[in-house]
Amino acid sequence: MQQAALIYKELGIDTLQEYVAFLQEDCHVVRSEGIEAQTRVELVCNQRSIVATVHVIHSDLIACGEIGLSMSAQAALSAEPGEKIEISQAPALDSLSQMRAKIFGHRLERNAFDAIMKDISAGRYANIHIAAFLTAMAAHRANLQEVTDLTSSMVDVGEHLSWGTTPVADKHCVGGLPGNRTTPIVVAIVSACGLTMPKTSSRAITSPAGTADVVEVMTPVNLSVEDMKRVVREQGGCFVWGGSLALSPADDLLIRVARPLELDSDAQLVASVLSKKIAAGATHVVIDIPVGPTAKVRNREQANHLENVLTHVGFANGLNIRVIQSNGSAPVGRGIGPALEARDVLKVLRCEHDAPADLRERALRLAGELLEFCQTVPAGQGLEKATDVLDNKAAWSKFKAICQAQGGFKEPEVAPIQYVVHANQAGRIKTVDNRRLSRLAKLLGAPEAKTAGLDLHVNLNDHVESGQPLFTLHAQADGEMDYAKNYLDTHPLFLIEAV
């Protein structure tokens, strides 16, 4: 089909990652091409092409013969005001029939996943298509072969790094436990011991902060592949947001849609985690699965199933996996939210007297396991080695060196608006609701508002007096603080048992 050309007009409309084209209702292209609202169109400019969803304008915001773009679409095309943009109806996607088959519960073969991941990574799927795929994978539990094939397909559509050495260490936590920010500490310890640990991390999906969100408070994480290689070559480790790289690119698009859905199925979780590890060139990965009544993984049965899938899919894709099932009954550390969690990480690395003991202990255990798994130290000596490296400040020195190599280090900032919540009765803290903690932190603005979140003053099983401070809310805007207070009125975080 011959492509029509329209003149680009800048509108400054942010639709996040969704590519949107804005057309006037009387535009000749709209009439002649049979285009209407929600039509998928292919746009070409500067020898780049994308597929976008049409929104029709019924006002004089743009003129006939003009086209507006969402900010993400404009960036993808590198379009400048006044440039011509060619437009035509997007070709039909054969992979959508495979996606629909999954919706109806059919098993998919490797070639089906290849086609779906190729189209997603190329930006040919609208958000609604991605949401349908994610929902289908969650509603109809994928078998081991499907998860293995999905993982391989996600790797194959992106770059695959090689470090010319072995072992290459990595670590991941499946999430669901607020404040459990062990990764920066583990990377600092392990790389200080001489191992190669090129850590790529995601941003938050269902939590108020991901590792990339937290580390970004202290140092740049949007590194190119070339910069990542330079940092690892100089320091042995790095902290990089996976979305800034072309490693398993379909995963980042899936995550962006999964975030507002708060959907994180076992199949997608495993494929997401392992595809990034494989693409980043890891050989040995320690995975932490917190288990608790309000964690992401609720019980041992679920944890055992997830461990089985992780180890099977990892082995099938050439990864050595060691899974650690940990206590997920309560949050870890005191801060929940990017800046507050970064503060806790720094306290542990600096060996400050008020560093959160639970965060320190978890990080040391995982670092020790990884050192033993990579045979850097004999079995049974990993924890001792990790503790020595942390206590003699070698890990802190390594962390600072990595940050400097990535663009510099800065201290976390503090939220301008704070509110202290007090206990309304005396007693023992019997339970802590991790999910409500996460929800509250997100209402306060985390992770987008870096200083937003909660600062906990008590722990599970602590005895509290009536009127004692339980936690402090941190926000950057009054409206978000009000949302959080209203939520607290009907959603208590702690169950305090009178004694």
From TrEMBL:
Parts forming coiled coils: none
Keyword tags: Glycosyltransferase, Transferase
EC number: 2.4.2.4
GO MF, one annotated term: thymidine phosphorylase activity
Gene3D superfamilies (alphabetical): 1.20.970.50, 2.40.40.20, Nucleoside phosphorylase/phosphoribosyltransferase catalytic domain, Pyrimidine nucleoside phosphorylase-like, C-terminal domain
GO cellular component: cytosol
Reaction(s) catalysed (UniProt annotation): thymidine + phosphate = 2-deoxy-alpha-D-ribose 1-phosphate + thymine
Similarity remark: Belongs to the thymidine/pyrimidine-nucleoside phosphorylase family. Type 2 subfamily.
Protein name: Putative thymidine phosphorylase
Species assigned in the record: Orrella marina
